[in-house]
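Lab notebook page, bench 4
Experiment: in silico fold of construct C2
Operator: M.H.
Input chain length: 329 residues
Purpose: comparison with the prior construct
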Amino acid sequence: MTQKDKDTLKHVTVGANQTDARLDRVLATALDGMSRSRLKKLIEGGHVTRDGNAVVSPSTKAAAGQTFEVTIPAPINPTHRGQAIPLDILYEDEELIVINKPAGLVVHPAPGNPDRTLVNALIAHCGKSLAGIGGVKRPGIVHRLDKETSGVMVAAKTASTHAGLVAQFSARSVDRAYHAIVWGRINPPTGEIEGAIGRHPKNRKKMAVRQTGGKPALTRYKTLASYGDGLASLVECRLATGRTHQIRVHLGHRGNPLVGDPQYGRTTARRSSLASLDSNTKQHIVAFSRQALHAHTLGFTHPKTDQRIDFNTDFPRDIAVLIRILESL
């Protein structure tokens, strides 16, 4: 049997109340589990026909009584192979999986990290239960954490749940809170940091607050604890937008970079503050080798059950040890 023989053929007849509606909207209403963006790609790829002729424009106006044939290509084997990487699973059902990502694990294969990623781990773990996200059997990544950021993440196992989660993230209805250890004491202790974020003008691997050319970004924060007479603070951050490196960039721009951050940390600027500490304590703090950032909270509405579910994760060992050291100052 060829790959084409495994394709699924669906017939959709336009209802009387759908006259003049866009074709992609009509099909999305009729075909459960198919997102509108996925259907747009199928239409543009010639997979939707009427009377034997391909209809290639998603905005084509439908007329009552018309019947369209939709060829849904069978999910193909994933480009990325599954790899047996241990996962800290907080929740799993047929539609989605929630994991506590460790620091050091890249979310998605990319140049420089072709494998040994979260995607490779999920492909191996989920196996045949993956229903084909975007026509490919792979987990549906709807949000990302930086490689060295730990904490809670959700991934979809079906196309319809992926679409539902993406819609919630786009609508900012997902509850997300991050805990960060930053240098210094933030003033005021609770507030907002607003500043457009774009590529750094001199270092393309970094992001920066930009006066022109950036995308609007807003971070809300509150101080949870302060250590060592203002040497460092534990801060909770909630994102009103989701820009690359947003928390790290905003707090660094504010003058309170994350402890251990190799890109935005400016640890050398804290040498005078560390000078009074004993050498062992100083060494432990300076040696913290990644940004002290943890995705603590994730809450969303389950796309299938319509139930609200929430997750809170403890600090991983390295941050917990760092906090104990700072609390002793």
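Observations: Residues 18 and 199 are 44 Å apart (CA to CA). The mean pLDDT is 90.
Next step: discuss at group meeting.
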